[in-house]
Amino acid sequence: MKKIIFITGFVALLLTACNQDTIDTQQVHDHGDVKLQLVSYSQDLEFYAEADPFVLGQESIILAHFTNLKAFDPIETSSITLSLIVGSKGVRQTIDHPVNDGIYSFNITPVESGRGKLVFEIINSQAESSVEVENIVVYQDSHDAIHIAEELVVSDPNAIVFTKEQSWKIGFSTVEVTKDAFGQVIKTGAMIKSSKSDRVSLVARTSGIVVLPGANIFEGTAVKEGEELFRVSGSGMAGENTHVRYMEAKSNYEEARANYERLKVLAADRIVPDSELLESKRRYETARVTYESLKENFEGGEQIVNSPVSGYVDHIYISNGQYVEAGQPLIDVAQNKKLVLIADVRQRYATALENIITANVRSVQDKETYTLEELNGSLSAYGRSVNPDNFMIPVHFEIDNTKGFIPGSFVELYIITLGSQDALSVPNSALLEEQGKYFVLAQLTPELFEKKEVVTGASDGMRTEIITGLANGDRVIDKGAILVKLSQSSGSLDPHAGHVH
Hints:
The protein has 501 residues and is α+β, with helices and mostly antiparallel strands. Helix content is 15%, strand content 43%.
C-alpha cells in the first residue's frame, strides 16, 4: 500500500450552534456550544472536522469528515487513529468504524496545555495516509477557549449551507483558484476533414467502363479490407481491350515457361550454352510478372477494384457506366481514425501563431469541450502567408477520432498561445450567469458557501479568466454549483441549525 502524507498549518475557527452536550448520529451540532472547524486539503483528500474547543482535562468531541477529491465521495471504511500532541505529551484514540460513510466521531481529553497539533493516521485497503493539523491550542480553562473562538467567528446571513452528506450524493466538487499562465486565446471555427494519411485513393489501372455491383455504394458506406467495390471493364472495346492484353500475357507466360523448362534439360546435358539458358529465364520471369499482375487485378477483361483498408467510402468520383481513362481517380476510402481540423484566423493574430501551445475543441453537436491532449492531437502547421480566397491565415491540427466527430462538420476551436503573465482562472462549469452578470459559489467552509460576483476575461473553452472577485487560494464549486444554489431557494436548511448525520 502506498503512503500519502500532507501537512497543513491552516485552521479555520467558526461558531456552530448546538443544544446538547453529547454527540449522537441524529444531531451533532449542539445549539449553545462553540465549535472549532478544521479544514485541510491534499492532492487526494479533503479533511473537514468540527470540534469542541480544547481545554486541559476536559473531553472534546471531534466529528471528522474525510472526502476523496478524485470523485468527491466519502473514503471507504478505514481504521483511523487520532493523536493530540502538545509538546512531548499526547493522547490517542483509534476508531475502526464510521458513524456514517466517511464520518468519524472521536472523544479525546487533552493532558497538556499549550500549542500542538492533531494527527490522523488513516489505514484502509487502498492506502495508508496521514493528516496533520497544526496550530491546535489547548487552553487552561474553558472560558479562554470559548472567548477566543467567539472572536474568530465567521458569519454570513446570505451564505448557503450544503452539508457533506448532501454533496456526497450529487455530482459535486470544488477547486482551488490559482494564478497560472493564461495565454492569448484565439477563438474561431474549424472544419473537420479526414486526414490524408488516413485516406486511400483508388485509381483506374486501365481504360474502360465502370460497372457497379448489385449493391449500390454511397458516400459513407462502410467497407472491409479486400471487399470488391466495382469493376472497370475493357471488354468489347476496340482499343485498350484488357481481356486481349490478359490473354496475350497468359500466352506469352506459358510459352516462356515451356521454353525455359526445355532449355534447363538441354543445358544439363551441355547441349545449349548457359547464356541461352539465362536469356530464356529472363524472358520467363518478365512474362510471369506481367501475367500474375494482370491475373491479380483483372478477371475476364475487367479490373477488379477492391478496398485496400477497412473504413468507409469518403468520396465517389465516377458513376455506373461512365468511361474512365487509366490513372483517373475512382473512389476515396477513409479509415476515419485520424482527422484534420482546418481553421482560419485573422491576420492580426499572425505574430501569436508561432507561440501556439495547445487548443481546446468544442463539439457543436453535444456541446462538450475536449483538450487537444484528450484527443491525442497536435498542431500540424500554420500558414506563413494569407489565403487569397478569404485573406485569413490557415491553421491545421490533427486529432484522433475518438469522440465521434463527423468529417465535413464544424467545431468551435480555442487556440491557446503561450502567455507571458499569470492570471486567475476557474473552470467554465464554476460560473453562474444571471442577467448578464457572472457569479461563483465561493467556499467559506466545506459546508458553507457564499455567492460572489466576478468580472470575467478571456476563455479558452475550458477555463475563464477572472479579473476581479476572487483571490489566489480561494476555493469555488466547479461541479454542482447550480444544485447548491437551488438548495438555498428551497429553504430546506437553516444556516444556524447545522446538519444531520
